[in-house]
Amino acid sequence: MPNLLVKPKGTSGLVHDITPESAGWTYVGFGLNRLKAGEVATGESADRETCLVLVAGKARISVDGQDFGELGERMTPFEGQPYAVYVPEGSRWQATATTALDLAVCSAPGGGDYKTKVIRPGTHPQMTRGKATNTRYVTNIMPEDDNAAHSLLVVEVITPGGHTSSYPPHKHDEDNLPAESLLEETYYHRLNPAQGFAMQRVYTDDRSLDETMAVEDGDVTLVPKGYHPVAAIHGYDLYYLNVMAGPSRIWKFNNAKEHAWLFTGV
User: Fold this and answer.
1) Centroid of chain to Cα 205
2) How many domains is the chain partitioned into structurally?
3) Residue in 239, 237, 245 with CA at minimum distance from that of residue 219
4) Distances from the Cα of 189 to the Cαs of 113, 159, 221, 228, in angstroms?
5) Is 212 exposed, middle or buried (0-12, 13-18, 19+ CB in 10 A)?
6) What's the domain range around 171?
């Protein structure tokens, strides 16, 4: 199994390029472009659908020649909700940075007759989950109930420093609906201030997989299976962008039984 902690390759250009092949799984792909104003990123979705998320900065985006103009508002992922663009399979896209830009390219197998769509801030209201030091703030970009994609689920979360997230530990690694869905998942992490770090553990009940990682600004963690709680260290707020996909576009999870008494909603 590949290393579950993926460091960025350099500080500019395509700094992450995670494919199903490189991750050793079937569904999820994740890329991250870090561009200067005037630089261009392009892609072709082929048989995969894509969600372009403006993590930070602004860009002029077009899909199959249709120009959607300049999109983006926030200059860091800690400043409000994102702009995103859904790109169906068989399409070409282009993003021209108009400011410094962090552009996430989230992908999964395509299908169906879905159309290109700009997903604007406020499309799905931010939610507060948990309580006390398990409080975090969730913005669905492409949730399961929007019927806007074939297999792709995309969400971002802000976890204040000193708080936990994806907690109590839960998993979604069995194709056993309606009890549980099988979803691979990536976490793209950002820290504020950027020199901070957070902790993430990925483990299974039998501990055949059990890795605990210190994640730094710009890292990606892979969750092929198992539980995957996160802890933000005091003084450093944590942002992460999740991409999930599997054989069914349903997020149905199960909590670790020994921690169920802590349950406050994930």
Assistant:
1) 24
2) 1
3) 239
4) 32, 11, 8, 14
5) exposed
6) 5-262
Neighbours of 13 (CB within 10 A): 14
> What does each of the 266 residues of the chain score in pLDDT, given as a tens digit?
569 999 999 999 999 999 999 999 999 999 999 999 999 999 999 999 999 999 999 999 999 999 999 999 999 999 999 999 999 999 999 999 999 999 999 999 999 999 999 999 999 999 999 999 999 999 999 999 998 899 999 999 999 999 999 999 999 999 999 999 999 999 999 999 999 999 999 999 999 999 999 999 999 999 999 999 999 999 999 999 999 999 999 999 999 999 988 875 44
Residue pair 110/35 in contact by the 8 Å Cβ criterion:
no
**Selection from 37, 33, 72 nearest residue 56 by Cα:** 72
* Placement of tokens 């299974």 in the chain: 204
Burial of 208 (0-12, 13-18, 19+ CB in 10 A): exposed
Alpha-carbon distances of 227 from 94, 166, 170, rounded to whole Å: 36, 9, 5
Question: Residue 110 has which token pair?
Answer: 């395509």
Give which of 99, 104, 64 is closest to 239, Cα–Cα. 104
**CATH number of the structural domain spanning residue 69:** 2.60.120.10
In angstroms, rounded to a whole number, what is the distance separating the alpha carbons of residues 220 and 242? Answer: 10
CA distances from 200 to 37, 143, 144, 161 (A): 33, 23, 25, 14
Cα atoms found within 13 Å of the Cα of residue 152, Cβ hemisphere only: 30
